[in-house]
Amino acid sequence: MTGPRTSRYARDVAVVAFAQSDHQRRTDELSEVEMVMPVLHEVLAATGLKAGEIGFTCSGSSDYLAGRAFSFTMTLDGVGAWPPISESHVEMDGAWALYEAWVKIQTGEADTALVYSYGKSSPGSVRDVLTRQLDPYYLAPLWPDSVALAALQAQALIDTGETDEPALAAIAARSRADAGNNPHAQLRGAVPQGDYQVRPLRTGDCPPVGDGVAAVVLAAGDLARQLCERPAWITGIDHRIEAHGLGLRDLTDSPSTRTAAQHAGLFDAPVDTAELHAPFSSQEVVLRKALGLGDTVAVNPSGGALAANPMMAAGLIRIGEAAARIHRGASDRAVAHATSGPCLQQNLVAVLEGDRA
Fold first, then answer.
1. Please, what is the end-to-end C-alpha distance for the chain in angstroms?
2. Rounded to 5, what percent of the chain is helix, strand, coil?
3. Which regions of 180-231 does DSSP assign to beta strands (E)?
4. 3-state class of 171 per DSSP?
5. Confidence (pTM)
6. What is the spatial distance between Cα 88 and Cα 100, in angstroms, rounded to a whole number?
7. Which of 256, 192, 252, 236 is nearest to 336 (CA)?
8. Residue 5 buriedness (CB in 10 A; 0-12 / 13-18 / 19+)
9. What is the per-residue pLDDT across 69-128, written as a single tens digit (0 to 9) for each?
10. 74 burial class (0-12, 13-18, 19+ CB within 10 angstroms)?
């Protein structure tokens, strides 16, 4: 086998394993450690590596969801922090933890990395918690929640003629139908659009609230081929951010996603799969345009965030799902996208490729 297309980086790094939990509306009976441990065991077992053989460990989570400071230190019990390990954490979706781990491998300080992320949204009101992301002087005191802001974005798209409510309903229906083949999805099959949450978004246009965990293993060079029959090589990865103030942005477009895609080399060749972190149906419209995705691309064949959206893990799941399709030969070149913040404020784009015969 030959390698992927020419890498633009010092080292070839691949996703060699991916695992996730069965995403559920509530996991009251489980602590974060009890949620994380089975997924970590599964992803390590897929490679044959033991925790002590991992060069670097990085996690993503949010103390706001847990309701206590430095909550991520508790889940290290699920990793096993003795003997001492090289470990880091990002207060972000796990996709950004993967980026840090990828950089660590690029520097030569590690050859393998374990990346995991988790979120328990069920204990509180996610719509209220996410208002704390907003500008503390002008927006946050008004308490506009995440659904209301997404509705503003959806209405802007409708006003400019880029979509309409039936088109949004079709996106939601396709996503839930595709999730029928995903045993980990929280919502599967025909799910009614339901009533308006905030016009023009109905229940079906919005992500489910739930709890979940995801984990991947990264490896460099020949080691990746030893650990995985068909590694998913990260041939490009980049992340960018929009202005914090929503009034300073065109909500119908995502320049940061487009810029990240350019720097990741997405437009160098066609892709056959796109796993987009679009928690709202309207955001898929924005991302398709920013990434230049045509009708021949399989978009969110896993069901995407409309089928399961565990906070802090949904972005990492997009990378994992894209990699898993490459592992099993269902994809040759895929793009994975993760977002954080209101109305697609921060965006990460990764291009993954399989070895070519």
1. 5
2. 40, 20, 40
3. 196-198, 201-202, 211-220
4. helix
5. 0.95
6. 9
7. 236
8. middle
9. 777 877 887 888 777 888 999 999 999 999 999 999 999 999 999 999 999 888 888 888
10. middle
